[in-house]
Design goal:
36% of the residues lie in helices and 17% in strands. The protein is an alpha/beta fold and 306 residues long. The protein has a single domain, classed as Ribokinase (UDP-N-acetylmuramoyl-L-alanine:D-glutamate ligase, 3-Layer(aba) Sandwich), CATH 3.40.1190. The strands form three sheets. Strands 7-8-9-10-11-12 form a six-stranded mixed sheet, sandwiched between helices. A four-stranded mixed sheet has the order 2-1-5-6, with no helix packed on it. It is globular and about 50 Å long.
């Protein structure tokens, strides 16, 4: 999506303050971080045929993303969202995406061949926001895609990333996430989201539910309280990385997910991967917007040190 972020002196959105236009979106943020961390990444989405879409496509390619699975809508444009932050750097969003090209992904020419290619992924990453873009029939196709990836021996990673504005109600979001859960290998939920959706009292409850659905490992993000890594063998608490000043928490979870998945791909054990993920998230929250500028980005680090 196109991303508007406020750059004024005051924290939070304010008319008359400076704004900057960039790119963002939860799966996109994670894709860019994964690529910067040295993994080959194909991004599966849809754009329009307008100037903004052309500039976005060029930016994706400049980041090294493989855009061979990007489809194009003849009339619709990318979605837009605006970020506002409070004095503690906590973010809020306003969205304009009802007619975005991505929402029509499954109706576009080339979708069948793109899905067939996506089935061969070694790692498929998607989120609750991904699910929220589509109706039941299209979500069923995503679940089928995840099932194919896992059946072929690939890994399916999922972050619930619950945004109420994207759903008709809590029940609809809960049902959609329960439908995909049996196909998820690595669950990367946020405790607050899971509490709102499922009423879980603790990170342990979240881990139990995801493992019971079929996940192999679960990492429950708890913001400044760190995370809890869980598997059948047990649970480990991993503290958050130290931060001098939280400027903007936008994209912190996306960065954490990428840091974790990249470290796991490089052979690190889950607790070590969570530590690497926490370091990357700590860097992101000290910068405005969802992504670090490329010149400041965390370079590829197979050791997961950051």
């Amino acid at each position: 999506m196109l991303e508007l972020s406020c750059m004024g002196a005051a924290e939070g959105a304010r008319l008359g303050a400076g704004w900057t236009l960039g790119l963002g979106g939860d799966t996109y943020n994670t894709a860019v971080h994964l690529r910067r961390l040295g993994l080959p990444v194909r991004y599966f989405s849809a754009l329009g045929q307008d100037q903004y879409s052309a500039e976005m496509l060029a930016a994706w390619r400049a980041e090294g993303l493989d855009t061979g699975l990007v489809l194009f809508h003849p009339r619709h444009m990318p979605g837009l969202y605006a970020i506002h932050t409070d004095a503690q750097g906590e973010r809020g969003f306003a969205y304009w995406r009802n007619c975005s090209a991505a929402r029509s992904l499954f109706d576009l020419p080339g979708i069948e061949s793109a899905l067939a290619a996506a089935e061969t992924a070694g790692l498929l990453y998607l989120s609750g926001i991904t699910l929220s873009l589509f109706g039941p029939a299209q979500r069923a196709r995503l679940v089928e895609l995840a099932a194919c990836v896992r059946a072929r021996g690939g890994v399916v990673a999922f972050d619930g990333n619950y945004r109420p504005a994207g759903w008709a109600d809590v029940a609809a979001a809960r049902a959609a996430m329960q439908a995909v859960a049996p196909q998820v290998s690595i669950a990367l939920p946020t405790l607050e989201d899971e509490q709102r959706l499922f009423g879980d009292a603790s990170a342990g409850d979240v881990i139990d539910r995801w493992l019971g659905s079929g996940a192999i490992e679960v990492v429950v993000k708890r913001g400044a309280a760190g995370c809890v890594v869980g598997a059948a063998s047990g649970r480990v608490e991993v503290p958050a990385a130290a931060v001098d000043r939280v400027l903007d928490t936008t994209g912190a979870g996306d960065a954490f997910n990428a840091g974790y998945l990249a470290a796991r791909a490089h052979g690190k054990a889950p607790p070590e991967a969570a530590q690497a993920a926490a370091r990357l998230a700590a860097r992101v929250v000290q910068h405005r917007g969802a992504l670090l500028p490329r010149q400041q980005a965390w370079s590829a680090d197979p050791g997961g040190h950051g």
